[in-house]
Amino acid sequence: MIGRISGRVDFRGEDHVLIDVRGVGYIVYCSERTLATLPGPGEAASLFTDLVVREDLLQLFGFPTLLEKEWHRLLMSVQGVGAKASLAVLGTLGAEGVSRAITLGDWNAVKAAKGIGPKTAQRIVNELKDKAPAVMAQGVALAQSAGAPALEAETVIEAPAAPAAEPAAPPSSVSAQADALSALANLGYAPGDAAAAVARAAQEAPEAGAPDLIRAALRALAPKG
């Protein structure tokens, strides 16, 4: 399994990038959002990758962070969602936006992705809503491991003559949301309720730190009446 590729950008297409690694060019398919963050030809780049293997096809899909790669894997587990559909969702919402939309049951946000119809969007939300809290809680650990050379037994391909650019770190709010989720879990709140409250708080105040998110979430979770 190829878990990450580091090398020099040779070419950028509409839906992929060609990265030269020790004289071998790897075609890596990416979302529009990811492609927009990559440097121009001749410059160093690094992407976490997921290899899709079929009888007559091998394709690499690239992601700037491990968090986004994890969401890609979960999206791919939904019936009717292939790799390109997953990239469309991630390209429209980003990893954090996917977390928020699924946690809040906002299938309309998912439907905004190109090629995703209402039935597929609802299926994504329904099948992944119970997994979203765990992914959000893993945000801090994934961010910390973003600079690691590999995940478990995954293969890393690197070009020593071209120092790899560090993958873009997830937005700071990802860490804040993960910290808030951890605090609410320690207080005994159910993961689903806590995740929904934190997601709403983050949606209303995107730049809020963990303490503010915790306070807002606690207000939302407080018994009414």
Automatic annotation (TrEMBL):
Region of interest: Domain III: 174-225
Single annotated GO MF: four-way junction DNA binding
Database matches in InterPro entries: DNA_helicase_Holl-junc_RuvA_I, Hlx-hairpin-Hlx_DNA-bd_motif, NA-bd_OB-fold, RuvA, RuvA_2-like, RuvA_C, RuvA_C_sf
Location, primary (coarse class): cytoplasm
Record has Protease as a keyword: no
GO annotation, biological process: DNA recombination; DNA repair
Compartments (UniProt record): Cytoplasm
SMART domains, sorted: HhH1
GO CC annotation terms, alphabetical: cytoplasm; Holliday junction helicase complex; Holliday junction resolvase complex
Alphabetized UniProt keyword annotations: ATP-binding, Cytoplasm, DNA damage, DNA recombination, DNA repair, DNA-binding, Helicase, Hydrolase, Nucleotide-binding
Chain ranges of the Helix-hairpin-helix DNA-binding motif class domain: 73-92, 108-127
Stretches for region Domain I: 1-64
Gene3D superfamilies documented for this protein: 5' to 3' exonuclease, C-terminal subdomain, DNA helicase RuvA subunit, C-terminal domain, Nucleic acid-binding proteins
Keyword ATP-binding assigned: yes
Matches recorded under Pfam families: HHH_5, RuvA_C, RuvA_N
Domain notes: Has three domains with a flexible linker between the domains II and III and assumes an 'L' shape. Domain III is highly mobile and contacts RuvB.
Family as reported in the entry's similarity comment: Belongs to the RuvA family.
Cited function: The RuvA-RuvB-RuvC complex processes Holliday junction (HJ) DNA during genetic recombination and DNA repair, while the RuvA-RuvB complex plays an important role in the rescue of blocked DNA replication forks via replication fork reversal (RFR). RuvA specifically binds to HJ cruciform DNA, conferring on it an open structure. The RuvB hexamer acts as an ATP-dependent pump, pulling dsDNA into and through the RuvAB complex. HJ branch migration allows RuvC to scan DNA until it finds its consensus sequence, where it cleaves and resolves the cruciform DNA.
HAMAP family per UniProt: DNA_HJ_migration_RuvA (MF_00031)
NCBIfam families, sorted: ruvA (TIGR00084)
Assembly notes: Homotetramer. Forms an RuvA(8)-RuvB(12)-Holliday junction (HJ) complex. HJ DNA is sandwiched between 2 RuvA tetramers; dsDNA enters through RuvA and exits via RuvB. An RuvB hexamer assembles on each DNA strand where it exits the tetramer. Each RuvB hexamer is contacted by two RuvA subunits (via domain III) on 2 adjacent RuvB subunits; this complex drives branch migration. In the full resolvosome a probable DNA-RuvA(4)-RuvB(12)-RuvC(2) complex forms which resolves the HJ.
Protein name according to UniProt: Holliday junction branch migration complex subunit RuvA
Classification lineage: Bacteria, Pseudomonadati, Pseudomonadota, Alphaproteobacteria, Rhodobacterales
